[in-house]
């Protein structure tokens, strides 16, 4: 019943937010796993409490651009990639 209601009355912005948030969190988990880092290690890298990082990596926390950039710098990787603007014909961006 809830799924039907969501399909009929869902919000595209909320859906996109949740999807993007989960993709970012999944990427962080993958990088941590590849580097054999725990959430506690990651918390130390960010100067945060492990409980806060657990909240960030739950997939339901509203990550700010500032927190995403902080994670990118700590991990040395892009979590969000924004394609560069295509140069205009006269060479300006």
Task: Characterise the protein shown here.
This protein has helices spanning 2-9, 12-34, 39-46, 50-56, 65-75. It has 93 residues and is mainly α. It has a domain at 14-75: Orthogonal Bundle (434 Repressor (Amino-terminal Domain)), CATH 1.10.260. Helix 3 packs across helix 4 (50-56). The longest helix has 23 residues, at 12-34. The radius of gyration is 17 Å and the shape is globular. The model has no long low-confidence stretch (mean pLDDT 86).
Overview in brief:
With about 90 residues, the protein is mainly α. Helices cover about 60% and strands about 0% of the residues.
Summarize the topology:
Blueprint lengths: L1 H8 L2 H23 L4 H8 L3 H7 L8 H11 L18
Helix pairs in contact: 3-4
The pLDDT mean sits at 86
Shape: globular
Number of helices: 5
User: How far apart are the first and last residues' alpha carbons, in Å?
Assistant: 49 Å
Uncertain runs are none
Return the CATH class of the domain at 14-75: Mainly Alpha
Strand content: under 5%
Radius of gyration: 17 Å
Total number of strands: 0
Largest sheet: none
């Amino acid at each position: 019943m809830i799924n039907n209601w969501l399909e009929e009355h869902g919000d595209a912005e909320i859906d996109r937010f949740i999807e993007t948030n989960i993709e970012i969190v999944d990427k962080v988990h993958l990088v941590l796993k590849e580097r054999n880092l725990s959430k506690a290690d990651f918390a130390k890298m960010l100067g945060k409490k492990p409980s806060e990082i657990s909240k960030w990596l739950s997939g339901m926390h509203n990550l700010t651009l500032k927190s995403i950039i902080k994670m990118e710098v700590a991990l040395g990787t892009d979590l969000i990639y924004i394609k560069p603007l295509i140069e205009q014909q006269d060479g300006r961006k």
